[in-house]
Design goal:
The structure holds two protein chains of two kinds. By secondary structure, chain A is mostly beta strands. Helices cover 0% and strands 58% of the residues of chain A.
Chain lengths: 114, 111
């Protein structure tokens, strides 16, 4: 069974204090690893997809990296508007079909104080 | 360009009742998935529809059923509601295997 574990559960940072969120996963053949951001009362907002170990993606102050067992979301010089829950999810290879559920972790609640 | 829209936004039902939630996918998307998100947890996959057929299903009982219409919109039906069904129900759409785009969900409260 596919599993995703995120750590820490909650992270409090001062504005400008860089840090990383961790996503450890086990999956029967990785098709893709996804990062989403979720604001209170809203649905998850897509950030990145990573497909193979060694791949990196960047968007503004966020950088996602992938190894064979985990992914990191690095946040450089965060601002209060980066406060949100960050969700990691994996999609397994589905025997060549295009259909594949996402298995999510429980999320990391990030709070950035001014 | 409208994203994924869900209705209603909030719903209160009594234990044992039935509920129908609705979803319109993002323009151009043909695949719809439904997820249940309990408070403080990540979303859990319920099922996925493509070409009006259920293609994949998560570990949810038969009380949870769905439908996809020719215009790609979808419904989620839950029968015999339990207190534990209280959650945020998220609809997500995609074009085949592209990243999912989520709506803002329907908050279901069962009393």
């Amino acid at each position: 069974e596919d599993q995703v574990t995120q750590s820490p559960e909650a992270l409090r940072l001062q504005e400008g204090e860089s840090s990383s969120l961790n996503c450890s996963y086990t999956v029967s053949g990785l098709r893709g690893l996804f990062w989403y951001r979720q604001d209170p009362g809203k649905g998850p907002e897509f950030l990145f997809t990573l497909y193979s170990a060694g791949e990196e993606k960047e968007k503004e102050r966020l950088k996602a990296t992938l190894t064979k067992k985990e992914s990191f979301l690095h946040i450089t010089a965060p601002k209060p508007e980066d406060s949100a829950t960050y969700l990691c999810a994996v999609q397994a290879n589905a025997g060549g079909t295009s259909y594949g559920k996402l298995t999510f972790g429980q999320g990391t609640i990030l709070t950035v104080h001014p | 360009d409208a994203g994924v829209t869900q209705s209603p936004t909030h719903l209160i039902k009594t234990r044992g009742q039935q509920v129908t939630l609705r979803c319109s996918p993002k323009s151009g998307h043909d695949t719809v998935s439904w997820y249940q998100q309990a408070l403080g947890q990540g979303p859990q996959f319920i099922f996925q529809y493509y070409e009006e057929e259920e293609r994949q299903r998560g570990n949810f009982p038969d009380r949870f059923s769905g439908h996809q219409f020719p215009n790609y919109s979808s419904e989620l039906n839950v029968n015999a509601l339990l207190l534990g069904d209280s959650a945020l129900y998220l609809c997500a759409s995609s074009l085949r295997n592209a990243p999912l785009h989520f709506g803002n969900g329907t908050r279901l409260t069962v009393t």
